[in-house]
Amino acid sequence: MKQSTIFAIAAALFASTSAVAQVSYPPAQKGTTVDEYFGEKVADPYRWLEDDMSQQTADWVKAENAVTRKYLNSIPMRANILKRLKETVNYEKSGIPFEKNGKWYVHRNNGLQNQYVLYQMDRPDAPASEQRVWLDPNKLSNDGTVALKGVYFSNNGRYMAYVISRNGSDWEEIYVKDCQTGADTSDHIVWAKFTGATWLGDGFYYSAYDAPEKGREISAKNSVQKIYYHKMGTPQSADELFYMNPTQPLRFYGVSVDRDETAMMLTESGMDNGNNLYVRDLKKPNSQFIQMCADTRYQYAPVQTVDGKIYILTNAGAPKYRLMVADIARPGFVDWREVVAESEDVLQDVTFADDRMILKYSKDNCTQLYTYTVDGKRIGEIKLPTYGTASISGKRGSKEVFYDFTSYTIPNSVYRYDLATGKSTVLFTPNIKFRTQDYVTEMQFYTSKDGTRAPLFITYKKGLKLNGKNPLLLYGYGGFNLTLSPHFLTNYIPFMERGGVYVHAVLRGGGEYGEDWHVAGTKMQKQNVFDDFISAAEYLIDKKYTSSERLAIQGGSNGGLLVGACMTQRPDLFRVCLPAVGVMDMLRYHKFTIGWNWAPDYGTSEDSKEMFEYLKAYSPLHALKPGTSYPATLVTTADHDDRVVPAHSFKFAARLQECQSGTAPVLISIETNAGHGGGKPLAKRLEEQADLLSFTLWNMGVKK
Fold it and tell me: What residues of the chain score a pLDDT lower than 70?
C-alpha cells in the first residue's frame, strides 16, 4: 500500500464534524499467509504486522495513532480528567525503609516525579530534610523513561549495584555505585534480563542472554540464559561464564547467596509451574551444586539460611504453601522437615527478625500478618486497619520491623512494629488532596458458571444508588499464580467522582487460593477464567450496580487476553472493552521473546490436536467474527513491549476493525518509548489513564 494513501485516509478520520462520529479506519492490507495445524489450515492475513521493523508496519502504526489521537483529544472531558488525575496523584509517597551496612534507605516520590528516588538516611525515621538523595533515576533520562528495577548491596558494604531498564524494555543494564564516595564505578553490564546482582566478595553474578540481532531486540525469541560472574573493575568482556545449560534453552537460571556468604542456591525454572533448586556449600573449597528437589510441578523458594539450615517456602504437598527447613549437609527433599504446616489461608512470604519469624498470609485476597517462633509456633498477630495489602521488611537479629499497608480507599502508609511490645506506630502517612472518607469498599462473593465462589471488591463514592445506571469498570487478571491484592485507587477517582464504580474480580488461574486455584484456570481449564469474569459481570448487573449499557471491562497482559476472550464470547454483555498489552494470538504467542515461558499456563498449538483446537476456540484474534457488533474498544500497547510483543495488539486491532459491524469505535493506541508497563513514567501513565477513562465514560453516555 502506498504511504500517501494511508495518510490521506488518516487525515479524513471522521464521516462528519462531530467529535464522536463514525470512525474511518486506516486500511490494513490482507496477506495470504496460511499455517497448518494438525491438518487444519488457519489463515493469518495480518502476519506482516509481526515485523515491527518494516516500513509498512510503521506506516500502519502512525495512521492508527493519528485516528486514535484525534478521537480521544476530541472528547470534551478528557482535559478535565487529566487535570484531576494530576491533582489526585500529587502527594508524597514513601516506601518501606531498609538498612544496609549501618545506613538506612527509602524510595520516595514527591508527588509528580516520573520515577521514585532512592534516599539515604542515618535513621529510619529521619525527616525529609535529613534524607540525602542517593540515586535519582529521573536524572538518567530527559523524559523519565529510564526505570530503576532494583538495588543490590555487597555484603562487605563497599558497593551497590543497581539495575535499570530503558523505554519499558525487559532488557536490563547493571551499574555499580561506590558506597564510600557515592560515585558510579566504571562497571557496566548490558543485555542482562530477568536478573538482579548477587554479590560474592568483590564481584557479583547476573543472568543474561547473548546480544540479539540488530533490529530484532524487541521480538527475537530469547533462549539459553547464562549466568556470569563480574569482578569489580574489569570489563564485561572479561566476565566469567559461571553456568549455562544449552540442552535446556528455554529455561531461566539464577543464583542467590546468603548474607554470610556460606551457601549458594541455583534456581532453574520455566519448564512447569514450579522450579528445581540446587545448593552449594561455600564453606567447602571446590564444592559442587547438589540437587535438593526434582518435581518441577511445585515451587521451592529459599527465604533464609541460619547456621547451615535453609528455610524454604514451598507448595510441594501443600497447595496453599508451607514452610520447611533443609540441612545443607543433607539437602535432599526426603530430609526436609516441616516447620509451619499448610493452613486454610495461603502462605505468601516469611520474614526473619530478632529471634522469630513473621508470616504473611492471604485470606480472600487480603493480607494477614502473624508472628511465629523459629520452630513454628504462632505467637500473635500484627493487626491491620482493614482488608487490604501489606508488605514487610526486616532482618534476622533486628528488634523491629517495618511494614506498609494500603487498600482501595487507604493510601500507602508505613508502620514500625516493635517485636518486644507487639505495638505498631505510624512512621509515614501521606497528605492527600481529596476525601478518602467519601468512598467505601465492599467485599461480596459471586458464583461462577460451575458453582465456584469468589470475591469481588466493589469501590464507589458513598450515596450510590443501586438503580442499574451506574458506570462500572470491572478489572480482572486470572493467571500465572499471581495475586492482585487491594491497592489505593488514585487513578480512578475521576471515574468514581462521576458516579462510577470500580470492581476487582478474583478469578481462577491466579494465586489467591493456592495452587489448586491456579491450576483450575490453566491449559484446557482456561475457559474457567473467562466464565468467572462473565459471571462476575452478570452478578453486578443482577445486583443493580450497573447494566450492560454502562459496563466496561479492563485487563492487561494476561488480563488483556481475558478482555479479548470475553468480548468475543459475549459482545452483548459489555459496552466498553479496554484490553492492554494483551496476549491475543494464542497460536503463535510462544514464538516471541519469552512467550515460551507461558506454556505451563496456556499450553501451545504444537502440543496436540486437542490443545490446538482449545486454544483456537478462545484465541481473541481467531474468535473475531465478521458482521458482529462489538463493544467500543480501546486497545493499548507499546513499541518497546518485549514481554507481550505489540504484534498481538496490532493483529487483533486490524482484525477487529475489519469485523466490526456496529457503530461503536474500535481503536488502538501505540505508546512510543514504552514497554509492557513496568517502570513507565508517571507522565505517560497519567496521559494513558485520561485516555481510558474519557473513552469509557464518553461511550457510556457520560458527557461531563
Answer: 1-22
